[in-house]
Amino acid sequence: EKGGYDWFMRKEIFEQPKAVADTLLGRYDADGALTLDEIRISAAELRRIDKIVIIACGTAFYSGLVAKYAIEHWTRIPCEVELASEFRYRDPIVGPTTLVVAISQSGETADTLMAIRHAREQRARVLAICNTNGSTIPRESDAVIYTHAGPEIGVASTKGFLTQLVACYLLGLYLAQVRGTKFGDEIALVMEELAAVPAAISGLLTEMDPVLKLAADFADERVVLFLGRHVGYPVALEGALKLKELAYIHAEGFAAGELKHGPIALIEDDLPVFVVVPPQGRDMLHDKVVSNIQEIRARGARTIVLAEADDHEVDAFADVLIRLPKVSTLLQPLVATVPLQVFACELATRKGHDVDQPRNLAKSVTVE
Ligand code: M6R
């Protein structure tokens, strides 16, 4: 059932183009309108929402961090993202005009479930983004957007994450449509770009040689850092989590803008640092991240740079270059995450770890 792959995880990484396409399927009609059937919260009510709170755990939480950038940009609704395990024991400010978005691949994560119960007690409206039909979290929510990733067996989330991103983008665009903060043609542009993502991921997956080669050199590494900015920051966090889970390496993700506030003290000779570079030209943060690469390299770091295919500004400062397809900034996590998944999977395989069942972890965390 692994379809010729050594691990479910690897199979699931390669299923991502289809998972993304399936999650987009049937949600955008020929007249240029988004229809999210399962939303079940009326347009009038969605227009009254004055705050969004996203709650989730682990990788799903990182998809929520990406969602915040997109949702606030497209809808102008303030959006917070919180770990479900923190939210459930706080006294959060939510009410009938708050939309709580619970993101969970399994739909059974105990902390996320308790967090939505906590939110509903305060009469918040709850929308689930979930991959598992009929699971508990969507059943206890007012509305649901299903991701159509198909079953995810590997403990490390891969296609679950990418499809959560897609669902978050769809939600953001839908809210923008309903509330009139974006016009049809602007929504159409993003939808067009999203529609091209599956092919972009397929192409990227055929160019993983530098990533596989890198994994072969990593057997003895004990510490790895990941840097990103804007939506690249959650990508850095996700890259680090994958390495922790699968390769049992101490890995940390940082917002590149925070370097001087502490993390740069960690940089020493030969320390491997992955850097996610925002798209070139169209993005003011690009140059700032390129400067960060120079700064850490001057202090001895080994830089592994993920940058767009024709971004040559990074060439001189990259010890290893991983090329990404061109997409707009907000959508870049859909492609930038993929090499990091492949890297963690490959490294763990080389270390002889059980990639699908990493030590101490369970696929769905149904206890706290
Ligand atoms: O099923 P969920 O999406 O609610 O699971 C949340 C986390 O437990 C999950 O994403 C976990 O962090 C993964 N093992 C990450 O690869």
From TrEMBL:
The protein's assembly and partners: Homodimer.
Biological source species: Microlunatus ginsengisoli
Keyword Cytoplasm: yes
Residues annotated as catalytic: 363
SIS domain: residues covered: 42-181, 214-358
Main location: cytoplasm
Compartments, record wording: Cytoplasm
Designated name of the protein: Glutamine--fructose-6-phosphate aminotransferase [isomerizing]
Catalysed reactions, as listed in the record: D-fructose 6-phosphate + L-glutamine = D-glucosamine 6-phosphate + L-glutamate
This enzyme's EC code(s): 2.6.1.16
Taxonomic superkingdom: Bacteria
Parent-protein residues present: 247 to 614 of 614
Keyword line: Aminotransferase, Cytoplasm, Glutamine amidotransferase, Repeat, Transferase
Keyword Transport: no
This protein's encoding gene: glmS
Protein's job: Catalyzes the first step in hexosamine metabolism, converting fructose-6P into glucosamine-6P using glutamine as a nitrogen source.
